[in-house]
Amino acid sequence: KGLQKDIDKMKYSRTYHDAHKPKFAFAADGQKPDNSKGKTAEMLYPGGKEKDQPNGYSKVQAWFEYNEEDGKYYRYQYGGPHIDESTGEQLAFDNVIFQYCYGEVRDENDYLAFGCHGDNGMKVQVFTQGKMTEGTWSRYADTDPAYYVDENGDPIVLSQGKTWICLIWDQYADDVVIE
User: Fold this and answer.
1) CB-based contacts of 67: which residues, under 8 Å, 6+ apart?
2) What's the rounded Cα separation, in Å, for the pair 179 and 174?
3) What are the pLDDT digits (tens) for 86-103?
4) Structural domains counted in the chain
5) What is the pLDDT of residue 119?
6) Positions of the chain with pLDDT lower than 50, given as ranges
7) Spacing of C-alpha 23 from chain mean position
8) Full-model pTM
């Protein structure tokens, strides 16, 4: 109801600039991305398999497990399925992205800050259909979304559907386990 009022107040543009690239490149309707050359990736542990490591994901024991039957990655935490309180169903995603970035602890309360504002050329791993595509991510400006490209500079194509993004503190990149 108040969307236009807020757009005017914040002086947001309702048109894209000439260099704008969308955050995600999805496969066309009825198609799947061609990631056949990707490495098999059926178990994803953004914080590794060990508990209580300082990387954050290890503290909640987060992982994703690929289900070949429906082509989705199911999320787990604290030793069991991560359940949506509203639906009672386990969270499931067509795509999972590990976006590596600079991180830092800002105060004695463990307030974390992640550098997602132009750390261009940092590593990204994109998981879809049980395969991983590696590349880099960039942002052209703070108002633009992160943009994911493969090693050739081409947009990484995702399956249509839900996507979960894990920000991985680059200091803890070696903790990540992909099987």
Assistant:
1) 73, 74, 92
2) 14
3) 999 999 999 999 999 988
4) 1
5) 59
6) none
7) 11
8) 0.86
For 99, counting Cβ atoms within 10 Å of its Cβ (0-12 exposed, 13-18 middle, 19+ buried), the class is buried
Query: Does a structural domain hold residue 13?
Result: no
Length of the chain: 179
- CATH number at 24 reads 3.50.90.10
Domain residues for the domain of 143 are 19-178
Alpha helices in the chain (DSSP H): 3-10
Report which residue type is found at 151. E
Token digits of residue 120: 């261009």
Distance separating alpha carbons of residues 134 and 65, to the nearest angstrom: 19
Question: Rounded to whole angstroms, what are the CA distances from 57 to 4, 6, 47, 88, 179?
Answer: 38, 35, 4, 23, 17
pLDDT at 22: 76
